[in-house]
Queue: 2 jobs
Job 1
Amino acid sequence: MDPVSRGTFEEESAQSTWAILVAAGTGERLGSGRPKAFAALAGRPLLAESLERLDSSDWVDAIVVAAPPEWEEPAILLAEELVASKVTAVVTGGATRADSVRIALAEVSEEALVVLVHDAARPLVDDAVIERVLGRLDGTVEGVVPALEVHDTLKRVASEVVVETVEREGLVAVQTPQAFVADRLRAAYAADLAGATDCASLVERQGGRVAVVEGDPRLAKVTTAADLERVEQLLDRSDP
Ligand code: CTP
Ligand code: MG
C-alpha cells in the first residue's frame, strides 16, 4: 500500500523535528491475537498512548507512523480520533524494525533537521525524556539515546549453561526515543541493515558519535502480558 499522506506537504516541510513511531511489529511474545500496537492498554489501543504523547509534545513538529500490514486504516482512524494533527503519513511497516524505520524515513521531509525514533511498545514516553535526548543533540554528536544503568549481574549463556560472566562496568540498557541528526540517520539507513537492533547501532557503524542520557524506568518495553499489566498500573499513577 502506498503511504497515506495527510495535510499538505508544503505546510509540514518547514518543520524541523520529525518523529517516527514504529508500531508495525506482530507482537508475537505478547500473543494478544492482534498486533501489539493494537492490544488493549487501559481500554485503548497501545499505540494511542505514545501517539497522543508525541502529538502533544511541543518538541515534535510532525509524526510518521509505521503500522502493521492491514492495520494502516485503523492507525489512521486512531490518529483522527485522538486529533493527532501532527501525523503526516501512515506507512506499512516492513519485516524487521529496521525495515519499518527505513520505510517511515522516506516520508520524513527533506527539510527535517532532527528525527526522533520511538517504539510504540514503550507507551509512557514523556516530554522530560524527549527534552533530554533533543537537548543533548548539540552539534558534537550525531545521535542521542536514553539508557538505564544495568544493576543485575550479566552472564552469557549457551544451552542453559553459563559461558561467561560479562563485565558490567560501563554497560547500559538502551531505550527509545532516540534522536538523530536527520542526514546522519538517512545515511545510516541507506546502508546494510542486517543485525541492527536499534537505530543508533547503524549510526555507530558509520562512525557516528552517539551520546547517552538518562532513560526512564517507565519506558521499559512492553514485550509480554505481564509488561502490559505493569504499564497499565503505572498509567494509573501518571499524568497523560
Ligand atoms: N517494529 C516494527 N516493525 C517490525 C518489528 C517491530 O515497527 N517489523 C516495532 C514494534 O511495533 C515495536 C518496536 O518495533 O514498537 C519494538 O519491537 P518489539 O518490541 O520486538 O515488537 P514486536 O516485534 O511487535 O514484538 P515480538 O518481537 O514479540 O513479535
Ligand atoms: Mg520484535
Note: Residues 25 surround magnesium ion (ligand 2) (CB under 6 Å).
Job 2
Amino acid sequence: MPSLLQDSYDRPIRDLRVSLTDRCNFRCFYCLPHGEPPIAPREQMLSYEEIEYVCEIFVELGIEKIRLTGGEPMMRQDIETIISKLARLKSNGLRDLALTTNGYFLPDRAQSLKEAGLDRITISLDSLKRDVFKQMTGVDVLDRVLEGIAAAKKAGLEPIKINAVVVRGHNEDEVADFAAFAREHDIKMRFIEFMPLDAGHDWTRDDVVSGREIRERIEARFPLEPIDVVRGSETASRYRFADGGSGEIGIIAPVTEAFCGACSRIRLTADGQIRTCLFSTIEHSLRDVVRGFASRTEVIDFIRSVVMKKEPRHFINDPGFVAPSRTMSFIGG
Ligand code: SAM
C-alpha cells in the first residue's frame, strides 16, 4: 500500500480538482473578459481513459475528494461517462465526487448526472438581476440558470452550493439578497473574493470586496453565527443564520484572509498539467509522463515529486506578485 500524498510542509493532499475542458459558453468578465483565449488542441487534452487512469492512482495515493471543473465541464461531451467511471473509485477510498458548473445545461441533465453517480454540485451565479447577470457573464441566461438550480434540487444533488464572485461596482449590493435567496431555497451560498486570475489581467485590489465587508453587508439584514466546526482544509468560513433560518453562508477570502496553511488541493488541467497552487506559475506535465509509456510506479513517483514542490502559500499580497499566465478557465476553478 503506497503512503499517502503529503507535501514538503507536511500538508496532506486530499483534494483534486480536474478540469475537463478549457472551453466555456459564458464570458464572465473576471475570467474570460476578452473572449476565449486559444483552446488546447484536442490531441493535447486528456481522454476520459487517461483521466480515469490517473484519478485511480490519485485515489490510491489518498485523494478523497474529486471536483470536476473547467472551463465549463458540461461542455465536454457525455460527461456522465467520466462521472460514472470516477464514481466507481468510491470503493477505493474516494469519498466525494463533485462538479462545478455555470448551470446552463442542468435543466436537461441534472438527473443524468445524479444517476451517473455525482454526489454534489456547485453552481455559479453572480447576480439575481437579469441585466447585471448578463453584464457579468456575457450571456442573457439568468432564468435558465435558475431553472438549472431547481433541476439540481429536484434530482437530489444536495446540498447545492452557489458560488458568487463579488466584484466592486458590480454585485456587492446584492450580497444580502443572495443571503435571502439561500434562506428561501435552503442553499449553501459561497461568496468568493475576486482573485487576479482574469485573462485580461485587469484585476486591481480596488475591485476586491473583502470577506469582512461581505459579512457586514449580510449581517446588516441577517445576523450570522459562525458554524463551530474545525475548518481544516475548507476554503470557506461558514456561518448559519442566527434566527435559525434555512441555508448557510460561506465566505471564501483568499485575497484578504489567505488559508494556504491548511491547503490540501492540487489541480489537473484539461491538457494534463498538474498545478500545485491556483497561482502557480509552473506546471508539471502528467500527460507527457503517462503518454511516454511510464510504468505505474513511475507515474506515482512523478506525482509525489510534484506534490513536494507545492508552494507554501500564494503571493498575491507580495509586491513582486506575478499572476499566472493562464486564466481560471484553463486552470480549473
Ligand atoms: N464554468 C464553471 C462555473 O462557472 O462554475 C466552472 C469553472 S469556473 C472557472 C469555477 C469558479 O471559478 C466559478 O465559480 C467562477 O466564478 C470562479 N472564478 C473564475 N474566475 C475567478 C476570479 N478571477 N476570481 C474569483 N473566482 C473566479
Note: The CA atoms of residues 228 and 238 lie 8 Å apart.
